[in-house]
Design brief:
GO molecular function: DNA binding
Organism: Candidatus Scalindua rubra
Family: Belongs to the 'phage' integrase family.
Radius of gyration: 23 Å
Order of helices and strands: HHHHHHHHEEEHEEHHHHH
CATH superfamily of the largest domain: Intergrase catalytic core
Keywords: DNA integration, DNA recombination, DNA-binding
Distance between the termini: 64 Å
Largest sheet: 3 strands, antiparallel
Structural class: mainly alpha
Pfam families: Phage_int_SAM_1, Phage_integrase
CATH class of the largest domain: Mainly Alpha
Helix content: 40-55%
Length: 320
């Protein structure tokens, strides 16, 4: 199998350059290919001449193996797509003569949409955060960026101070390095912008410059560090607040807040699927449609996100 492994680097370069995929996507696909080749080497003993190549039956056997390991249909579908692109590359290089992926049944991905929160659950999670402390203000900012701006967790942790632009009380968040390597600007209205502006003041008082991380970790005793907050650190915090709010979600992750934001946009006048895709930074409309229920209709439209989330204005009224 060393013979096929040597083509992964070429596939990686071609996949990045021609299809314009992000480094994270390319790395993920290459890892899936490597996992398949490792499985193939362990299950199928190659002959001495090393010319034994995978067949369609091998691909199907691998998908079955993944199924019994507990992989969901969506996971197995992603692995199949990665292998399809790799073997297309091998055909381009002349390593294989035929497309072994032809007519392989695709695992049916769940079309029921992704998990999300209800508005009242979001409000309850916000209420669990103590906005009197620096850590509390930081955590509110994290939640605001996910719920009200729909940022990916990777985009949140990569933000620097200069990526937040003040526009007469409202804020524009400049997303430099998104999943697809493109740029976009996300607008935030005045009410949540107050907390981000408060956090900027805290960061500046800590000696942070414009190119320093927007979100940093804290030591025990609420002592700030200069280290950028990690996705793992954010996920732990959000899970803690969700548990305190008793949302009763079996799984809680940051992507659920992004999905919630996408669903919320359906209630805002002027936001069709194309506008939602642009705000979320989706490359394909089909991706956006996963977040939007195919059934049901919006019973009430709002003039803006500020109007839709007006309850947010009074979350901490009793605390402050």
């Amino acid at each position: 199998m060393d013979g096929l492994n040597q083509y992964i680097s070429g596939f990686e370069r071609r996949f990045r350059a021609i299809e314009g995929r992000s480094p994270l996507t390319v790395k993920s696909y290459c890892k899936k290919i490597e996992n398949f080749l490792q499985w193939f080497a362990s299950e199928r003993r190659s002959p001495d001449n090393g010319q034994h190549l995978p067949t369609r039956q091998d691909i199907e056997a691998y998908l079955e193996y993944c199924f019994y390991r507990g992989n969901k249909n969506s996971t197995r579908l992603t692995k199949l797509i990665a292998l399809h692109k790799f073997f297309t590359h091998l055909a381009y290089e002349g390593v294989v003569k035929e497309d072994i992926m032809v007519n392989i049944p695709r695992p049916r991905a769940n079309k029921g949409g992704v998990q999300k929160f209800m508005k009242k659950e979001i409000i309850k999670i916000f209420k669990m955060i103590d906005v009197v402390t620096e850590v509390g203000v930081r955590d509110v900012v994290i939640l605001i960026l996910a719920v009200f701006a729909g940022l990916r967790i990777g985009e949140i942790v990569r933000l620097n101070l200069h990526d937040v632009m003040d526009e007469n009380g409202e804020l524009d968040i400049n997303i430099i390095d998104t999943k697809w390597g493109s740029n976009r600007v996300v607008y935030l209205w005045k009410s949540p912008s107050i907390f981000i502006r408060r956090w900027l003041t805290i960061r500046i008082s800590q000696g942070a410059g414009s190119t320093d991380p927007l979100l940093v970790s804290y030591k025990k005793g609420n002592t700030p560090t200069r280290q950028r907050l990690t996705p793992v650190g954010i996920t732990k915090k959000i899970k803690m607040y969700a548990d305190k709010a008793k949302t009763k979600k079996p799984i809680v992750n940051m992507h659920m807040f992004r999905a919630t934001h996408a669903s919320d946009l359906r209630h805002i006048k002027g936001y069709d699927v194309f506008a939602i895709a642009e705000r979320l930074g989706h490359r394909n409309i089909s991706t956006t449609e996963i977040y939007i229920p195919s059934r049901g209709r919006v019973h009430k439209e709002y003039a803006s996100l500020a109007a839709y989330w007006q309850d947010f204005n009074h979350v901490w009224d009793k605390k402050e």
